[in-house]
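User: For a benchmark we're assembling, each entry needs the component sequences followed by a predicted structure for the full assembly. Here are entry 17's components. Please fill in the structure.
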Amino acid sequence: MGRAYTDIDFASYNRQAKRVSELLARLGYLENREIFVVTEGTRAIFENGSSRFHLDVFYERLDFCHVIPWNGRLEADEPTIPLAEMLLEKMQIVQINEKDVIDTIMLLLEHPLGTEDRETINIDRVASLCGSDWGLWRTVTMNLDKVLHLAQGYPQLEPENKARVAEQVQLARARLEAEPKSMGWRLRARVGDRVKWYKDVDEVH
Amino acid sequence: MTTLVRDLMRRGLVTCAKETRLGEAAALLTQHRVHALVVVDEAGMPTGLLSDFDLLAGEWLSADAESLAAMRRMTAGELMSSPLNTVDGSQPIRAAAELMRSQGFHRLIVSEGGALAGVISMSDFVAHLAAQEPLERATVGDVMSSVVLVCREETPALEVARGLTDSRFRSVVVLDFAGRLQGVISGRDLLACVDGQDCAAMTAGQIMHPASTIQRTATLRQAAQQMIEHHLHRLVVVEADLSHGLPLGIISTYDIVNEMARPGSVWRSSAP
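Assistant: Structure for entry 17:
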């Protein structure tokens, strides 16, 4: 693929933070403790002194434009986070870039939507999180529409691939719409875009 | 004899125009001692309902100056829920209670002869039960109600209904023999009795729901957020390290709206 990897993101639970630090220390990584303290134990950054390789560990949740809680979900698949969370990781970015759009297109082409994990994108999990958080729903649906639109313009994609992406996005959108919404969701929806519905990424770093 | 909705309803509607700002709406709620306003259009036609719960969005979403300004610009017509949830005055109260329970409504607008005539809410049902024989800005601590109505787990449900009506309180905190917090009873819990269950044999411990607690030092925004996220109308205020101890007070949607309505509050000020 021609990509030079300089960092890896890991997900873990807070209760495992000490063991993660000890393991990475044995592998030659030094922790920036300030990050762990400033983020109240939700994130840790490690660097390898010789290779300059950089590791991010996200404890309990991914907390960028929106919060994606792990909540026992790390056991649903391995060795990566489940595909549903992988989709949400991309779709929660308000200022999404082309690389993330392409990653999402590949994810939708490679994996069907379903109600389980492993090789399936558990769309029930995505719908559940979006059904209780209007802000997340707003960003995810906005980005799904972007993916649908941009995919149709890539000459590298065969017509059947473009059709497959469109079908997957429409299925996901329909499932998100069908999910029952909480009272807070409905109240927040009435306020809509008048009030900012996401965090600026700079605020959380 | 079957009791009908029109026998329990409160006649008349408190209305506001669609253009009414949230601070003004909060003032109307407290002035008329009601929990919701019917929002009318330019022709005076009802178009939606704005409740004290909806107004919590003001505190909940005002995380910074920009958001506060946006929320202060919002109007009743933009924040209201619609369409109106209505019931005909000729319906039995049991049908109205079932509708409220199943749909999670706190009140219904009553129509008579095709025109809107009044409101029936949970407090009307509670009063009805009680009559039966014989069965950063401010913090939470600043605006909570420090006087709390309490009862023991074994208190009969009908006594709870009577106590709520006599005292004009909207909730009862349930304690165990040692004064430890066990739960809360509100009008919604008592709806089960209206809806056919044998209230005479039931106790407070059987009908209460778990109490959601908050510390007195929490901000109103945190209280509003907790209420909205968990769809609660009141929180029990407790000491930081004594979440099951004797409560310090109760904070309700009404307390927060009352603070918003206070002359001089950020919601009533004319400053941009």
